[in-house]
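F.,

This is the one I mentioned.
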């Protein structure tokens, strides 16, 4: 049958990324406590398309995934990218793997355990060299230092989210990055809290007020001291409880 994708194109325009998005697929993630964790990811795969080709072969992306069935992990992202370049005759390949990751977390006083969900992503590229970025989304709680200072009693607090991206020399645990972020907030977010736990969380936040600026700076200080981290980008967003806007801060550093 005729291969329309390989027809010549007369518009003389390269395409940077062409491929497939939104593939739901099972993957394996290394778990610091349990060894491995099975989860379901949303996967995006792209290659570049030179100006002289009309189209790429979309089915080949899914074929490559199927050949790595249930063995997709951070350890073989580069191998998959290399296969994408070869099979699709491309100069560059890109892959995004977005997935939920679950950690069992105990309440701070009663010790009751529940599962916390954290959104994570691996973002890999292969062009002249390989590039791999790990991204985590961590829910946090903050208490406003200004509100605490000016109020006769109480202070407003809110949930927030820290989004952290890192490049690294050798393997880094998702759990370690999550812990680093949570220790930089006013207080952690938990899946289960009894009355004793809620009292503890409320009082801890009040004793540890944080602006979004404080959070990104504290995280940046810790990451700058880690020789394994070569680059990071950290952003903190508060979903404000008394304002009609969110508070936001961002730091990016090449080391």
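My design for it:
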């Amino acid at each position: 049958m005729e291969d329309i994708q390989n027809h010549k194109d007369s518009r003389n325009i390269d395409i940077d990324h062409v491929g497939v998005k939104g593939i739901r697929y099972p993957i394996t993630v290394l778990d610091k406590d349990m060894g491995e964790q099975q989860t379901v990811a949303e996967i995006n795969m792209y290659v570049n398309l030179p100006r002289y080709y009309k189209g790429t072969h979309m089915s080949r992306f899914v074929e490559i995934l199927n050949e790595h069935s249930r063995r997709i992990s951070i350890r073989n992202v580069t191998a998959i990218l290399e296969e994408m370049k070869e099979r699709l005759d491309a100069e560059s390949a890109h892959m995004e793997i977005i997935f939920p990751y679950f950690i069992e977390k105990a309440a701070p006083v009663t010790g009751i355990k529940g599962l916390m969900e954290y959104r994570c992503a691996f973002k890999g590229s292969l062009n002249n060299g390989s590039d791999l970025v790990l991204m985590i989304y961590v829910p946090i709680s903050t208490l406003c230092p200004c509100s605490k200072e000016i109020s006769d009693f109480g202070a407003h607090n809110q949930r927030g989210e820290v989004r952290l991206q890192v490049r690294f020399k050798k393997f880094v645990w998702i759990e370690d990055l999550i812990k680093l972020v949570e220790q930089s907030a006013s207080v952690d977010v938990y899946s289960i809290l009894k009355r004793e736990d809620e009292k503890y969380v409320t009082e801890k936040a009040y004793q540890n007020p944080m602006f979004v600026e404080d959070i990104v700076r504290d995280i940046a200080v810790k990451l700058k001291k880690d020789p394994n981290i070569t680059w990071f980008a950290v952003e903190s967003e508060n979903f404000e409880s008394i304002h009609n806007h969110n508070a936001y801060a961002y730091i990016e550093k090449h080391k």
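The chain has two domains: 1-106, 138-255.

Talk soon.
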